[in-house]
Amino acid sequence: MNLPKRYIIAVVTVFTVTLFFGCESNFKEVQKINFSEFVPGSDADTVNIKYTDSGRITGVLKSRKMLDYSNLNFPFTEFPKGIDVTLYDKNQKRTFIVSNYAVSYKLTGIIDLQGKVKITSETGQMLETEQLYFDQKNEWFYTERKFKLTDAKGISYGQGIDFSKDFKVINSQRVSGEFESDEQL
C-alpha cells in the first residue's frame, strides 16, 4: 500500500510544480495588462507661453522644461526646471513669480509652486516662501508654510498667508517682524 500512496504524492507534487511554473508567465502577462505607464503626453524645452483675454495679455510663462500629462484621468502640467511668470492686471500692472518647480492641475485650476518661491509686485512688495499655491479662478495665493513679506512698511515673517494677486488684500497668520502701522494702539 505504500507504493500507491508514494506514487500519488509524487504525481500531485509534479502536477503542482508544473502548474506553478506554467502559470508564472501568464501571471506576469496579466500584470502587464493592468500596468499603465506614467509618461507625459508631450514635453517641451524652453517654452514661452502668452495668455490672452480679449486680445489683452494676462500672463507670460517661461520655463526651460514642460511636461504635459493631459493624457491622464487627472491631467496636469509639470515644470521640473522651474518657472518665471509675469501676470498682468486690467491696468497692465505686473506681478512677477519665480519658483524652482511648479505643477498646474487642469481640473482644479490650482498651481503648486515649490522651491524658493518669490513673488514681487510692481510696487515693490515681495513674498518669499518654499511652497505657494495659486488659485487661477479666484486669482488668490495661499500657503501654510513659513514666509517672509517685504514692503514699504518693513519686513515681516510668519507661517501661513493668503493674498490677492495684486497684494491689495493680505491675510497672514503667526506674524513677527518690524513694520510700521497706521493703527493707533
TrEMBL record:
InterPro entries: LipoPS_assembly_LptC-rel, LptC. NCBIfam families: LptC_YrbK. This is LPS export ABC transporter periplasmic protein LptC. The lineage of its organism: Bacteria, Pseudomonadati, Bacteroidota, Flavobacteriia, Flavobacteriales. The gene is lptC.
